[in-house]
Amino acid sequence: MRRRARAGLVAVVRGLALCLLTLGVSLALFVLSVLSLAFLLLGLGFLATPVVQAAVRMHANQRRLLAHDWAGVHIPAPYRPLPARARGGLPGQVERTTALLRDPATWRDLLWLPTDAVAGFLTGLLPPALVAYGLEGCALAAGLWRVTDDRYWYAFVPVTGPGSAALCAPLGLLLLALAAVAAPPLLRAHFLLCRALLAPTRGTRLAERVERLRETRYDAVDSSAAELRRIERDLHDGAQARLVAMGMSLGTVEALIEQDPERARELVAQARSSSAEALTELRGLVRGIRPPVLAERGLADAAEALALRTAVPVETDIELPGRLGDAVEAAAYFALGEVLTNAAKHSGAARVWLDVHHSAAAGMLRIAVTDDGRGGVDPSAGTGLRGLQRRLGPFDGVLAVSSPPGGPTLVTVEIPCAVAAPAGG
After folding, report:
1. What Å distances lie between residue 239 and 230, 245, 329, 400, CA to CA?
2. What is the pLDDT at residue 86?
């Protein structure tokens, strides 16, 4: 009961805060949005619309954050990417305004603002109003009835004296209890209303999916071509050169085996050494394509091997129910290797924590790497993390980086996948 009462009180306070956001901010932004669109006919709207819409999207994203933190309601942001601010002046503003007006999310935000100012305000106001009205009943029973007129009504109770005023106390307590019970569902209903208007539609999700598949297809083709060029270069500069030299040495041995046996034995020894080095390079090349430990023992043991080879001490928590698909395991392995290498080289960390788990219910492989380094990682500043994003793209994988200055740094990789074979299978 105490926990429920506390949750109800918190929901009441949050509803009061939402009243300010809905009736104040949402209504003001709606008026500014309409004015900026009307001023497009005069040309001034091309300067005002991007600024106003940036404020609208900031307001909507703030509501998405509150929905997640206060009610556990996830509202994705459906905004299309805007053109870069490469060109200044009016041409650049016209291009940016045109992109905003072509984005369906802009018009959904415009529909949400007045709805939020009315329906959102009412769902936020009802719990605080019940609390205020319940407290009024208790105050009337405590003596406030003395300053009321002869015709004062509290709900359905006519307050004419101490007897009728005493009846207001149980009614007020009932309203307070009702506010505590109803406030959390009403708060959630407020955010569900926001999700109905702010979340991407089915058509928008399909369009984003098609666009993402198109981008990841090109990334996959580019990555495959780059990998083939690397293999060809490594073969040409390494093993192929050694094998050619070994063939020349064996040809010389064939000519000297009768005339100078001692020299022929030296060349045979050199050829044997070259063959061993070529074999070592070929094994390294194969290991770069698909490490033997990954092929033979799976991602769990391969991740343990990576953690042992990392220069910084790594604490591991790895739990996988079985083998995943070969392509998924390879992508996860190389992504994990890149993240651990970055943590060891650039973070200045003294310790790293690695968590690898698979959720059968969500069908998701989740890898989390946390270090206690200096933080301040910028994913857009280097090519390593961008390369990881391209590698994860064909699998609909997600790379998330949280790295405030001073640390800690948390890198999370999520890949949708199913278990291909149970452990030991």
Report:
1. 13, 10, 27, 39
2. 45
